[in-house]
Fold these 3 entries.
Entry 1:
Amino acid sequence: MKGFGTFILIVGVCWLVFALSMDVSVSTGLGRVNNLGLMADRQLHAIVGGMIALAGLIMLIFGGRAAAPAASVPAVNDTRPCPLCAETIKLAAVKCKHCGADVEPTARYVPATGWTIRIPCRPGMEFDATQKIVSDEGLPCAHPDGAVVVIGPYEEKAEAVEALKHIRVNHSIFGELSYKD
């Protein structure tokens, strides 16, 4: 958005310079006189160029931020919700940085051997709702991995695919298959 804003700003400024450099006089037998039609055209072009430049400036100032590099984005599997305030904290945290509550550190759970379905969720209400749907459907539910609901393990890939299709069709929940040795 900022790149487009810069482009629009440059176009607007060029248009404004063009408008202000227009010659509005015409030659007559007695010399040069100003033409009201040309003066109106110059005024119109100056207004349009100024508005385009203003729009570009607004886009440049308030445009969206560029995407953060992948290294600065925290890993979802390394976090969990705080039991008191539901804000995201690290698995190994002993104190919540948001509410200051003392919490028990949690080791990262490694799923059992077999095919699993991993459903990434936001910590808090979305995670709890997804976990409840999975348990209400009677699907085998492994320990959650951070903010990921893990269904399985299944010995056969076909069983995991059928479970994935079932939750996708009936609840519009999307996950991915993975295999763990």
Entry 2:
Amino acid sequence: MTEKLNELLTEWRNPDTENLDALPTSEIVKKLNEEDKKVALAVEQELESVTKAVDLIVESFENGGRLFYFGAGTSGRLGMLDAAECPPTFGTEPSLVQGVIAGGMSALVEAIEGAEDEPELGREDVEKVGVCARDVVVGIAASGRTPYVLGALEEARKRGAKTVALSCNPGSALGALVDVDIAPVVGPEVVTGSTRLKAGTAQKMVLNMLTTASMVRMGKVYGNLMVNVQATNGKLEERVKKIIVDATDCTYAEATELAEQAQGDARVGILMKLKGISAEEACKQLDQVGGRIREALEKK
């Protein structure tokens, strides 16, 4: 096991940071910044694979499927974070995008390291959440070989789900199992083996792409405006008003009135203003096109 670990690029010692502990603070943070600059370029090399994964996710959503993230440690937490941010940002049901972490919810705030070594736990968690053939399952593991994630992907494939691997080591065990392999090569970490650094940043960037691009394709965004945002606090209530202003060129006062009549739904407010219709009619037209505001605006 140790020998295999030493073969992983993410576990190699970085020659540019071997004297890290002897550096002043300014040089330590400079080294971190210099290494972080490499992450976006590594992700860029995987855009074709990311595109394929997004297309699988959109097809799944259109057929009543869901997106699941399975991971352990940092990778699992990143999946949970991305899933948790979809409902407030895109107005989705919490069940549409779900994160599952080895060791359960307590693993979000404390390290439960042993849980990642059990492939059976991954298989059991896939069964618990009811993964089916309509779904897409993304296994996240910087190493590309975490047993928990391997078990989850194996079980997901048995159930007919489409599968995606997200790691930072090319030619990984995870990658050999799946329909789409995404593996941005970020190289050795500043602190040897600490994959919460560049590897974690790369994973977060890819997860951002997977959900954001999928939600855009599903009509959850108008132009570049997050029109499905849920106005659940003061800041988001103001954001809804700003979205209405940006989309219609109306005044802030008018946007405030529209947002109130639309009960905080920016899409309804925009339709009311641009088509000169009531909130009730705007809701009806949105329902007819599955909530896609652009289609509602273009419909005669």
Entry 3:
Amino acid sequence: MQTLKDGRWLNEPTKAKISDGELFVVTDANTDFWRKTHYGFVRDNGHFYAFETEGDFTAEVRVRAHFDHLYDQAGLMVRLDGRRWVKTGIEFSDGHGLLGSVLTDEVSDWATGRYDGDPSDFRIRVTVESGVLRIQASDDGRTWPLVRLCPFPKADRYLVGPMCCTPERAGLEVRFSEWRLGPALGKDIHDLS
């Protein structure tokens, strides 16, 4: 059975502690994942704790953090390489912890909106199946409303796992727990379980 100890870092933070049940991270300064759109720059130095999958999968994790500085963010990332990836979770913007995603295929987009639950304690789930990416979020681990449905490149292998960044500072403390990675759930789009 896979545990949190089985991942590997892309951009390992200065401070991190891993146990079987929890990954604790303190973000380094000026970390982010972004490609070009609006700002013009490329950043690929955010913290990503990756697990390799074979084909389609569903991954989910519980995230606890106090987001209070512009662009503080944590959640999940799915990555093929530095030019094709998605990150999703809570990001602090306009005075709120917003639920959102950034899909990148050479350039990044950003889709975001208010989160009705407690942004300091949420769950995020990503499913990749047959070239389609489905993102869901939950405040209780039982009901999983849809956040995003979009095409995503088909591949034999993906990297997926917890992600966090602080583009404007250092020091966001993030606790990831209840990590699950397995075959794609294959549920109907309106099945919120």
